[in-house]
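Task: sequence design from structure.
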């Protein structure tokens, strides 16, 4: 009698192995996609915080160094705030929308709002909300300029608040 050679794999063993490898690869791919998306979100959050902090620092530096003493709305221009120093020099804070994105303009320098430059026909995922608010305290010579921007993909809102007394 001749002995049979049983050293190979059965079809069932091959299918089980293939199924396990497929499950492991699918799990790795979904984890990779999740962490890639999370990394993108953290990058955008960091850019938005940097944008907010740098604009606030630039304006506060001017308030201290150029002795800005007054604040008011610009004459005949929407979405514009005018700061004046002790020499009656004006510094303008404006919002400008273009096909390249949304800009915050301060003292003739343009600062592009991150994730606002998606091009024509595409809704921006990050934009300013409602222009500027100028709040004045009734009891103190205190002014507050506030503007907000919102990133709709990540549901994040940041406020830029400048207080001047």
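Answer:
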């Amino acid at each position: 009698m001749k002995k049979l050679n049983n050293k190979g794999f059965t079809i069932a063993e091959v299918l089980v192995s293939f199924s396990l490898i497929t499950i492991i690869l699918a799990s790795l791919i979904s984890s990779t996609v999740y962490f890639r998306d999370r990394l993108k979100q953290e990058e955008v959050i960091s850019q938005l915080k940097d944008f907010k902090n740098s604009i606030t620092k630039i304006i506060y530096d001017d308030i201290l160094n150029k002795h800005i003493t007054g604040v008011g709305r610009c004459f005949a221009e929407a979405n514009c705030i005018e700061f004046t120093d002790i020499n009656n020099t004006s510094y303008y804070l404006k919002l400008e929308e273009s096909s390249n994105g949304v800009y915050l303009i301060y003292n003739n320098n343009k600062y592009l709002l991150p994730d606002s430059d998606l091009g024509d026909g595409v809704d921006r995922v990050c934009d300013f909300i409602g222009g500027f608010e100028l709040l004045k305290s009734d009891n103190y010579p205190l002014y507050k300029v506030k503007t907000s921007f919102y990133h709709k993909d990540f549901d994040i809102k940041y406020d830029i608040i400048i207080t001047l007394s």
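The mean pLDDT is 86.
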